[in-house]
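Submission checklist for the structure archive. All mandatory fields must be present; incomplete records are returned to the submitter.

[x] Identifier: tRNA (Cmo5U34)-methyltransferase
[x] Organism: Rhizobium favelukesii
[x] Residue count: 212
[x] Sequence attached
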Amino acid sequence: MVSRSVPYYEEMQRMVGELAQDYAKPKTNLYDIGCSTATTLLTLDRVIDPTVNFIGVDNAPDMLKKATQKIQHADTQRPMDLKVVDLHQGLYMENASVVTMLLTLQFIRPLFRERVMRMIFSGLNDQGCLLLVEKLTSEDTAFNRLFIRHYYDFKRRNGYSEIEISLKREALENVLIPYRLEENMQLLKEVGFRSVEVFFRWYNFCGIIAVK
């Protein structure tokens, strides 16, 4: 479960739901980029106006297959459109009032991140919002080591063994490339978002809301 490895995951989902409610407009689109098995889409479905169309995109067909199964067994307010998309190849969006992107940008190669953000910004309506959750690195190496150590302590408390922690770290090396908080904030402002603010922070994890 994601909650075993992401601190306050359920609370982040709840906060994303609350903020999405504030910005979702009837008869617009809501996109979940990196939707995985549709956990966020199903959470949002319970609180968002049923006239809002839900679109989930992910680059892993296996994840979308699981997402489809979960949606079929859930009592949803609306159909959900799931698409296989490689974000490195581009992303088309339109009429979006809300875009969610939880723990996804960090897996996009840095060279392509600005382009992806510009496509998201272009697809958002005025007053629309992006809800971004990311793992972070710190400019100060001492803080970075501290935060990582406390994060691994969190994983141990949730039942991960030292071998599992080590294997996961090796698997993500050069695949998950986190930015500093300042880099993420600057990127969002550079592509045009007029208001950018942190809504959640735990050591090396944060949630950011950006409004067009």
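[x] Structure attached
Curator remark: The first helix runs from residue 9 to 23. The domain at 2-137+177-211 is CATH 3.40.50.150 (Rossmann fold).
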